[in-house]
Amino acid sequence: MTDSGAIGVIAVTERGRTAAGRLQAAWPDRVRTFTEDRAGEQLRSAFADCGAVVAFLAVGAAVRALAPVLGDKHTDPPVVCVDEALQHAVAVLGGHHGGNALAGEVAGVLGCRPVVTTASDAASAAPLDSYGADLGFTVADTAPLAPAGAALLSGRPVRLEYGGAPAWPLPPLPPNASAGTPAESAEALLRITDRAAAPEAAPAVPTVTYRPPSLVVGVGSARGASGEEVGALVDRTLAEAGLAAQSVRALATVDVKADEEGILRAAAERGWPVRIFSADELAGVDVPNPSDVVRAEVGTPSVAEAAALRAAGEDGAAAELVAAKHKSANATAAVARLRPRGRLALVGLGPGARDLAAPRALAELHRASVVVGLDQYLDQVRDLLRPGTRTMASGLGQEEERARTAVAEARAGAAVALIGSGDAGVYAMASPALDFAGRDIDVVGVPGITAAVAAAHRLGAPLGHDHAYISLSDLHTPWEAIERRVRAAAEGDFTVCFYNPRSRRRDWQLPEALRVLAGHRPAATPVGYVRNAARGDEHAAVTTLAAMLDGEAEEVDMYTVVLVGSSASRTVAGRFVTPRGYTWRG
């Protein structure tokens, strides 16, 4: 039986077995090792039984072993080969379906280099065969994928059409794919639609049709209605409205029909899940065709229309009825279309060094069609953005404008990344953005390494016990409030991390804060400061509270983080350490 979550790891040499052990240690719940000498048999077993394969074998050997059992690129598990010297992790199969990502993960554990040869990934373009897959898109016909993909990657004109479907928060496509491309000059067509194809001649150019999961079919029935009758009514309702069954995400009904065999059978035969709602939930849905007879029987004036609208509008999504109630002798059916929400990712890029940015943050940059941020942060990541990504930059002091812009773009249906340094939730863009964001957009938060954490590791272990973060910027917070917080941290004997400590126009706040702390701890209390933590021009120093008050504070600017120890902090071998406060026993 296939375990889709397992990674089969093939290792038949001593070095390979050692490396396999490292993968096992990194992913203890995912790895299944195959370490017997019969490499080909082991590889085929893993290929059959696991959701992905990592083989410490030459690519040629792996290909020859797997050739007899290869099936379809959309169903075969991803395969990654790692050479004996542990220098390369090569995505051999299933690149767009996890293989390329797995090569990157393996490389991250083993310290080797991922090798990706799929054309779209090599060109940093969205792969057409998995475009929108994370949103539930399916491809109506895979045959046009190769020629359409070739046109896209070659820079030839490609037309993008939304055939009645609402906008979805999709990744970007290269600039040569556009809704503005004239049909007569397009060499390929990408069509996103939940409408059934009209009975017409085949398109003159390769046409890839994506089916978004945008429709919900609501169904009601008399007791004992057959699956054949319910299914035939559903099919007719979709056909008469010109809607594609591949875009149906669910069938919905009222709870008193939850065990109705005809409804359950019709849904099962079409591969649709069933959503169940109470009569009270459906009674609150405004519908065009209410029925007093239905109200008297089940407690709601509508089942089919109300259930379709209620399911399509779950979690606050907008919904519209696109096929009003149809009837057969013993059943009713209606169809609603959901209007998907835009997507806002709040992304912290970390303290500056590329290798300290979280992989998930980099993935969100790849995923976004719109990236909003401070101009200098956008300059840091432009090489990571896919062709066609729209960027919206602004300068210092325009945080509210950036937040409003990002939320507005998400409300318009885009996949948006709002970026900043450090962590988006720590003195950064998450809070202003969430002040403006409502339930009409989806919000994703991506944790990032903060400047304080990066600075602390550069200095030693100053945050080893309780600590407080305080911003000394009084642009938005009155100094009286800041001073109260500094005094409370001093009286509580916290290690204190100061953000925004000093600028050309704000040169007195840091010395004043240090004087408050000096009233509660010794002059020799260690103080560390790091300018441009984790960047190429990083500068770090460990000094004392007395030295900072004697003028060393003038070394500090807005790009610096200052950490002041508690009364228990000390300097050990030049490193700033705050003990955890435990008694260690041998």
TrEMBL record:
Residues 343-547 form the Tetrapyrrole methylase domain. Keywords: Cobalamin biosynthesis, Methyltransferase, S-adenosyl-L-methionine, Transferase. The keyword Kinase does not apply. One of its GO terms (biological process) is methylation. Residues 215-336 form the CobE/GbiG C-terminal domain. GO terms for molecular function: precorrin-3B C17-methyltransferase activity. It comes from the Bacteria. InterPro entries: 4pyrrol_Mease, 4pyrrol_Methylase_sf, 4pyrrole_Mease_sub1, 4pyrrole_Mease_sub2, CbiG_N, Cbl_synth_CobJ/CibH_dom, CobE/GbiG_C, CobE/GbiG_C_sf. Its EC number is 2.1.1.131. This is Precorrin-3B C(17)-methyltransferase. Pathway: Cofactor biosynthesis; adenosylcobalamin biosynthesis. The keyword Methyltransferase applies. Residues 42-121 form the Cobalamin synthesis G N-terminal domain. It is an enzyme of class 2 (transferase).
